[in-house]
Write a structure and sequence with these properties.
It is found in: Cell membrane. It is a single-pass membrane protein. It comes from Streptomyces griseofuscus. With about 160 residues, the protein is α+β, with helices and mostly antiparallel strands. The chain has a domain at about 5-90: SH3 type barrels (Roll). Helices cover about 35% and strands about 20% of the residues. The chain has 4 helices and 5 strands, in the order H-E-E-E-E-E-H-H-H. It has a 5-stranded antiparallel β-sheet with strand order 4-3-2-1-5. Strand 1 (about 40-45) and strand 2 form a beta hairpin. The longest helix has about 35 residues, at about 5-35. About 5% of the residues are buried.
Length: about 160
């Protein structure tokens, strides 16, 4: 048997092995994450709900979604265990003060460009008052030049009218 005929089968088996290996690695990481859950930690379910872990059992987790609202979920339905900072940022909108010494970026760019009011503002005001000629003439200027606008005697059509008979 020619070794070139077996090459596609060998490549296919190797690709299947690599895909199952990465999937198995992801499953073990997810199981490890679910086993590390402790009461008081914030979680996100696979449905996108954020809650706090109240109690952890062998196969289930009791979650506190809101004051007085306790929900029982299977451990497999927990999508992610969040850090305290991430949970507070998402659920309560509390930002951790990581950038206390960083510069504040303004909302508009006017404060970033410093202009001198004595000489720059007068030139800018004069430039904004001038009209810019874009090559188009107004309708009043057309009639003043002697070229009359052609008017048709036919009535104008509305949206639903057509020439078809």
């Amino acid at each position: 048997m020619n070794p070139y005929t077996l090459l596609p089968f060998i490549v296919l088996i190797a690709a299947m092995f690599l895909m199952t290996r990465s999937a198995k690695k992801k499953q073990t990481q997810a199981a490890q994450m679910r086993n590390e859950m402790q009461p008081g930690s914030g979680v996100r379910t696979i449905g996108g709900m954020y809650a706090t872990v109240k109690e952890v059992n062998e196969d289930t987790v009791l979650l506190d979604a809101a004051p007085g609202v306790d929900l029982l979920f299977a451990k497999n339905s927990i999508g992610a265990v969040l850090t305290d900072d991430e949970y507070n940022r998402i659920v309560h909108g509390i930002e951790h003060d990581l950038k206390s010494d960083a510069e504040i970026v303004p909302d508009d760019a006017s404060s970033l460009t410093e202009t001198d009011e004595t000489d720059g503002s007068a030139a800018a005001a004069a430039a904004s008052d001038d009209k810019i000629d874009l090559g188009k003439k107004d309708a009043d200027e057309d009639t003043a030049d002697g070229s009359e606008a052609v008017t048709e005697d036919k009535p104008k059509k509305s949206d639903g009218d057509s020439d078809a008979k």
